């Protein structure tokens, strides 16, 4: 029995003993995690050694030779403004009346004297008919008095010969002369009345003509303000149902540009100074122009001075109230003079590093090279660089403080 019990004890499984052939499962997982961490650290180290820090996203601009910067001139000042018309009018009738017909539409070209609208002329026609009748009556009265005067003059002439022969009394002759003179005075008055009636008729004709609204000058209709049946008046009647105009026309030949220049920079602007005008609607179209005049007053609130600029090119694309950008140009040097030195780069590309002015040039391998610069004069938003850069290179705009020589960059908006 004892021997059998001992054999059974030997056949029991000891669960507290370590499993043969390796470590426990918990230790195996621990080693796996440690291995993965070491592999990740090793990969990061290799990546840092091979690729360096990730590329910096930048904006760039080309370096331009001074001769190409403005062809014959360079900008000394930039300002914004608007296209305005020196000749623009809101056309209205001279009298108050009801619109009968409107003959214009927006965008339509009209010539000087062309009929734009007509008013109902019933009142003016009635007044003209009355004045015409009065003129006819005055003329008829004049004709009647002329006939009576001829008879009175003949009667006075006969009595004058008879009174000399003492065949009629002197009193009869005097009565005939008085009648003749009275008719002469009445005829003079009738002729004046006829002249007054004729003048009144002419005024009535003007009243009829005032019911026709004509264009004061040639131009393009930019607004149509009235419709048939509405009441128009040259003066506001104080209510919301009376129009004060028929339409607005603009003389496109009188277009120019008005810009506001800050008081601190107005000294750079001179009359007849050449300018370059760029419309906001057409940014690639450069229009030549020149300064017409500097308005001799300043805006106290904005500290600006208004400058009038002429457009030397006329085009249907240029319309009033368009926004523009005006570059005031410095005249080119005389023929045979020495060409300007250096290149022209945006001022934003030049930064200071270790007390020196530098720029970062983009290389073929998408890395940047720091270049020390010798900077010349300021040219509006650009600067003249006398040495350190050459035309055709590409520089980084507004380089970040952490950007260093040899760093890899990528262009903003480029596909990765």
From TrEMBL:
Transmembrane regions listed in the UniProt entry: 29-50
Highest taxon above the source species: Bacteria
Segments forming domain CusB-like beta-barrel: 257-329
One Pfam family of this chain: YknX_C
UniProt keyword list: Membrane, Transmembrane, Transmembrane helix
Gene3D superfamilies on file: 2.40.30.170, 2.40.420.20, 2.40.50.100, Helix hairpin bin
Keyword Transmembrane helix set for record: yes
GO molecular function: efflux transmembrane transporter activity
GO CC terms, sorted: efflux pump complex
Positions of the Multidrug resistance protein MdtA-like barrel-sandwich hybrid domain: 87-233
Domain called YknX-like C-terminal permuted SH3-like: residue spans: 343-410
NCBIfam families for this protein: RND_mfp
PANTHER family: HLYD FAMILY SECRETION PROTEIN, MULTIDRUG RESISTANCE PROTEIN MDTA
Family: Belongs to the membrane fusion protein (MFP) (TC 8.A.1) family.
Name of this protein: Acriflavin resistance protein
Species: Stenotrophomonas terrae
């Amino acid at each position: 029995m004892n021997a059998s019990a001992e054999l059974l004890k030997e056949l029991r499984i000891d669960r507290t003993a370590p499993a043969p052939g390796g470590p426990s499962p918990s230790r195996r997982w621990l080693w796996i995690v440690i291995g993965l961490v070491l592999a990740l650290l090793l990969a990061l180290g290799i990546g840092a050694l091979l690729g360096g820090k990730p590329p910096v996203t930048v904006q760039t601009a080309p370096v331009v030779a001074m001769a190409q910067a403005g062809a014959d001139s360079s900008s000394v000042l930039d300002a914004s403004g608007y296209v305005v018309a020196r000749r623009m009018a809101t056309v209205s009738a001279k009298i108050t009346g009801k619109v009968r017909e409107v003959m214009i539409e927006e965008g339509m070209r009209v010539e000087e004297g062309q009929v734009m609208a007509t008013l109902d002329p019933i009142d003016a026609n009635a007044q003209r008919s009355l004045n015409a009748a009065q003129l006819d009556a005055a003329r008829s009265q004049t004709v009647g008095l002329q006939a009576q005067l001829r008879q009175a003059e003949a009667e006075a002439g006969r009595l004058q010969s008879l009174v000399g022969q003492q065949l009629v009394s002197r009193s009869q002759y005097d009565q005939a002369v008085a009648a003749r003179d009275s008719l002469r005075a009445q005829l003079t008055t009738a002729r004046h009345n006829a002249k007054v009636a004729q003048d009144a008729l002419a005024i009535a004709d003007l009243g009829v003509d005032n019911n026709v609204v004509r264009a004061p000058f040639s131009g393009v209709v930019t607004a149509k303000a009235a419709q048939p049946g509405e009441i128009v008046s040259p003066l506001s009647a104080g209510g919301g149902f009376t129009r004060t105009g028929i339409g607005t026309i603009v003389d496109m030949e009188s277009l120019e540009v008005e810009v506001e220049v800050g008081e601190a920079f107005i000294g750079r602007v001179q009359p007849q100074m050449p300018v370059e005008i760029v419309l906001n609607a057409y940014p690639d179209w450069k229009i030549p122009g020149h300064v017409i005049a500097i308005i001799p007053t300043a805006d106290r609130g904005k500290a600006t001075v208004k400058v009038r600029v002429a457009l030397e090119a006329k085009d249907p694309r240029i319309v009033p109230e368009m926004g523009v950008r005006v570059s005031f140009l410095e005249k080119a040097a005389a023929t045979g003079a020495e060409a300007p030195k250096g290149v022209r780069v945006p001022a934003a590309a030049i930064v200071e590093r270790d007390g020196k002015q530098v720029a970062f040039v983009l290389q073929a391998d998408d890395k940047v090279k720091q270049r020390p610069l010798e900077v010349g004069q300021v040219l509006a938003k650009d600067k003249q660089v006398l040495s350190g850069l050459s035309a055709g290179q590409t520089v980084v705009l507004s380089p970040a403080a952490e950007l260093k020589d040899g760093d890899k960059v990528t262009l903003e908006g480029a596909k990765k």
